[in-house]
Write a structure and sequence with these properties.
Elements (H helix, E strand, L loop, with lengths): L2 H11 L5 H5 L3 H14 L24
Helix pairs in contact: 1-3
């Protein structure tokens, strides 16, 4: 998919995502976000999984 197709697909699943805002991201980041949206809008429950791609940024959280 090219950048425009990815943005359209994102906006179909998340209408609040502004086109100008989405254009500020690289294609790889947009594709990662689209994959995540698709996963969230798909199957849920104990068989649902999300696999973090290697080499990307990581988020850590701490309970205070």
């Amino acid at each position: 998919m090219n950048k425009e197709e990815i943005i359209r697909s994102i906006q179909e699943q998340n209408p609040s995502a502004g086109e100008e805002f989405l254009h500020s991201f690289q294609v790889h980041s947009l594709q990662t976000y689209l994959d995540r949206l698709t996963c969230l809008n798909g199957q849920r429950g104990r068989d649902s999984v999300w696999v973090r791609r290697t080499g990307g940024s990581h988020t850590a959280a701490a309970r205070l």
